[in-house]
Amino acid sequence: MIRSFIWFILSLIWTIIMTALSVFPGFFIKRTEYFHNLARIWGRGVCLFSGAEITVTGLEKIDKNKSYIVISNHQSAFDIYILAGILPLEVRFISKDLYFRIPVFGWAMKKAGYIAINRKNPRQAYRALQTAARVLTEKKSLIIFPEGTRSDGEHILPFKPGTMKIAFMGQNVNFLPVIISGAGRLNPRGTLRINKSKVTVKICNAVHYNSEMLNSREKQISALQQLEKIINVEFSGLQS
Predict the structure, then answer these.
(1) Are 155 and 21 in contact (CB under 8 A)?
(2) Does the pTM exceed 0.85?
(3) What CATH superfamily is the domain 2-239?
(4) CA 79, CA 77: separation in Å to the nearest integer?
């Protein structure tokens, strides 16, 4: 209880500071790199305040000169803080549009180049996917949680077919599988409770697809199954 309270207070203060640092310079600074760096520092701070022991392997497999669609399993809100803090890439999250309506915070998300999506509005969702595909051509990377929701932390949920829609809009796509283990124990789903926990993050080899490899629904499903298998196998290895 004390750990959770300390984390909440420190993270709240930290978020206010980081948001302020994005708002005031934001009227003069147009480069999204500035806001991305703030998001990275913010993510690291939130993780640090939790007291969790976070181990990361595989960073050497990332080519900073390439863009990726980072696909990760999803156990906790901490997945976002962790990935924002550790990846040596300028990344964009695709997030529910309701978060962008939060005063000041939503504005900061827009300045950082994050993409709002409303899955109940097909036209808006399609425009969001077009924006996401354009991000990849600008040598930026995307982070996607293909399960579509948080799992129980013990199993990987089936991947949503929509994961491949962004890839279908591009010509050449590099998928970067990332496996997170322990985040669900650190911060159980649906709570603000913070437990003492060890979190392991494993970055796998990138998987490349070109347009010909994804030019039909059958090929997209096959590619999705391949990526899902990689995540499942590596996750099982971390759990054992």
Answers:
(1) no
(2) yes
(3) Glycerol-3-phosphate (1)-acyltransferase (3.40.1130.10)
(4) 5
